[in-house]
Amino acid sequence: MNRNQRSSALVRSRTAPVAARTRSVDESPLFTTVLKCSLWGLLATFISGLILISALSAAALASPDPSGLITPLSLIALFPSAFIGGFVTAKKVKDAPALCGIICGGFATLCAMLFSVVLKGISSSGFELWQSLLLHALVIVFSVLGALAGNVKRVSKRGKRRFGR
To answer: Of 12, 77, 85, 152, which one's alpha carbon is 20 to 30 angstroms from that of 111?
Structure first.
C-alpha cells in the first residue's frame, strides 16, 4: 500500500460513522459478552459471600445463642455479595448495566435456589413461599444496583463524561 492509499484509508476511517467503525453485532454480541462476564460476577458473588459469611459466622459464634443469628446473618452476607457481583459484571462489560445486573442476579438467585433445595433437609429458614420469593427478587435488585453503581458516569475535570472511573 503506497502513501496515497494509506492517507485515503485514514481519511475514510475518520469520516466513517461510528457504527461502521465498531464491530458488527455478529462479531461481538452484547448478550454473549454479558453472559461471559456474568460468570465472573457470579464468581465474585461467591467469593465475597464466602468471605462475608465467614466473618459473620465468627461473630455469631461469639454470641451466647448463635443459632438464632443464622438466618439474619446469612441474609446480611447475601445482599452485599449480590451487589458486588453486579458491580464486577458491569465493570467488565461497560454497557447495559441493568442487563448485567439482571443476568448476574438471576444466576446468583438460581444458585441460591438450588442450594436451598439441596440443603432443605439440613436446615430450614422458616420463610413462607412469598417471603422466600421476595428475598430472591431482592438478590436481583441488589445485583442491578451494584451494576448501576459499577457503570456510573462521572464528569472529568475537563467536563467530558467518562465511564467507570
So the answer is: 152
Q: What is the pLDDT of residues 75-124, one digit of tens each?
A: 889 999 999 999 999 888 877 888 888 999 999 989 888 887 787 755 55
**pLDDT tens column, 33-79:** 888 888 888 999 999 999 999 999 898 888 888 888 888 888 889 99
Nearest to 104 by CA among 130, 54, 112: 112
Q: At what angle do helices 97-118 and 30-61 cross, to 10 degrees?
A: 50
- Cα 140 from Cα 162, distance rounded (Å): 26
**Cα separation values, 96 from 64, 66, 151, 164, Å:** 46, 41, 9, 13
User: Which cell is 93 given?
Assistant: 462489560
Q: Is 58 exposed, middle or buried (0-12, 13-18, 19+ CB in 10 A)?
A: exposed
Domain positions in the chain are 30-152
